[in-house]
Design brief:
alpha/beta; about 120 residues; Spore Coat Polysaccharide Biosynthesis Protein SpsA, Chain A; 3 helices
């Protein structure tokens, strides 16, 4: 199983779903565990993501981060404080996790050769 880390808020749920779909379609032989770090995503949104990811045959692990982390960090329209959470990932991810790949939620995963990443 390959571990993927994403950090986001509610504004990036739809782009995340597009990224995940491209990841799943272009790596159909690979199983993924998606680690999602957030501080403000609502339970109903998390439930929807859980169902979406499970429907595609993969796992979701939700990591809630205290809303005060990076509260003083500079943020702009497209740069939320959640983008900084990848810098703290080592504090919140399981200690026995061997490796993880961070992907921005607003990318497309294209695998021209159809080989697993």
């Amino acid at each position: 199983m390959m571990n993927i880390l994403v950090t986001l808020n509610s504004n990036y749920i739809n782009p995340l779903k597009v990224m995940l779909k491209s990841l799943f379609l272009n790596n159909s032989k690979q199983n993924f565990c998606i680690y999602l770090m957030h501080s403000t995503i609502k339970d109903n949104e998390l439930d929807m993501l859980q169902k979406y990811i499970q429907k595609n045959g993969h796992d979701l692990q939700v990591i809630s981060v205290d809303n005060d982390y990076f509260s003083d960090a500079p943020v702009l329209k497209h740069y939320s404080k959640e983008m900084y959470y990848r810098l703290l990932a080592f504090r919140f991810l399981p200690e026995d996790l061997d490796r993880i790949l961070y992907l921005d939620p607003d990318i497309l995963v294209i695998n021209k050769n159809s080989d697993p990443i």
